[in-house]
Amino acid sequence: MLQLFPRKVIGLMILGVALTLMFTPQQLSATTSRSGNVIFIHPDGTSAAHWGAARMLYKGPDARLNWDRMSNLAVYLGHMKDQLTATSNGGAVTHATGVKVNADSFGLDEAGKPLVALSGKPQTIVEEAIAAGKATAIINSGMIHEPGTSAFVAKSPSRRNFADITKQIVESGADVILGGGELWYLPKGKAGRHATAQQSQRTDGINVIELAKKKGYTVVYTRDELLKLPTNTKKVLGIFAADDTYNDDTEENLKKQGLPLYVKSAPTVAEQLQVTLRLFSERRNGFLIVLEEEGSDNFCNYNHAAGCIEAVKRADDAVGVAMDFIQKNPNTLLVTAADSDAGGLEVVGVTEKDFPFDKPVPEKSKNGSPWDGRDGTGTLPFISAPDKQGKRFPFAVGWSTFGDNTGAIVAKAHGLNAQLLHGTVDNTDIYRLMYRTLFGKQLAK
């Protein structure tokens, strides 16, 4: 009889069958998954309509954003334990731990005890990454205590305990901490690079910037200082504004005060990510970066259309930086998800006859919802970038609320394990996907 396989090969095949019978599919995947780097970008408050507005304005209706070019997507479901629409803090806690929480949670359960994550450990995914010796970064365009990122490394009975949360972030051990909020680093009466003595808010007398320096952080305050950092810099604390790095208010109020949308000396989130990736490129044990563009939430909550769309564009620029990195480093996952739909933005696209380029758009629709032109209420329409035929189109932005809604939120993934994101995804699954990629372990549903 013809021997198809040598005895040694047959023995190995039998052993493989035996192992398959011994382990469940989940256990098998847990032993065979490849681990890699993770970049989580949280473009806060963005629905498909927000991305659509940015695409039309900056690229044109026939073109594509970086976000559009990500390989995989899923409809995102983000309800909390006690309400349908997520809060910024509750949504972030779920992303950080993989468990459902109440809307007021900031890392604690209903009894005020630290949460146990889906992994079974009393740590967020960033805290577990730090304990495993992986490089970690927290990046935010808002004040550093913004929950979309800070809930990955801090816990508090209230999201409004800004001073304590800021201190916890610096004490967390994260390698890179970038954002605004200098006034919460400094004790009252102490002036900083951005905050005046009158603005500084800490009442405990602690100078958290000095604390960071003692922990080995190199402190930078501007885009130029960040971009000049040597590649061998181990720990970085970037503080780029007294408050947020943007000025979130209505168009009319910003015009009265003569304020720009963003602080001019502050780096964009894309620039912050680019520097962080340069610092992490030689880290052999992998890394986890959590980045939030907060302006896309805050501007929309003020129904500031131009600021909102600018913020979405900045988030998209960061997506582009991550995708360029993945092209050269395919062992990296990029995942994006918002937790709510800020302001209920919709694009009102009609003909030039309805919205002449040289006349203000109507202030309201027939049902009373407010409309914005490019400079706010009662101003000229936005003009799209050209389509394939070179034609530009007028449009307005309509709003449903000032707050956050449960809208048409889409999660996306690109790179390592991106194929696992498809169909409809729960907010807890964002953690599950990040965990599988970072640690090579599939967690049970």
From TrEMBL:
**SMART domains reported for this sequence:** alkPPc
InterPro entries to which the protein is assigned, alphabetical: Alkaline_phosphatase (IPR001952), Alkaline_phosphatase_core_sf (IPR017850)
SUPFAM superfamilies per UniProt = Alkaline phosphatase-like
Q: What's one Pfam family the UniProt record gives for this protein?
A: Alk_phosphatase
Keyword annotations from UniProtKB, A to Z: Phosphoprotein
Q: What is stated as this protein's family in its record?
A: Belongs to the alkaline phosphatase family.
**Family matches, as PANTHER family:** ALKALINE PHOSPHATASE
Q: What is this protein called?
A: Alkaline phosphatase
Q: Which organism is it from?
A: Anabaena subtropica FACHB-260
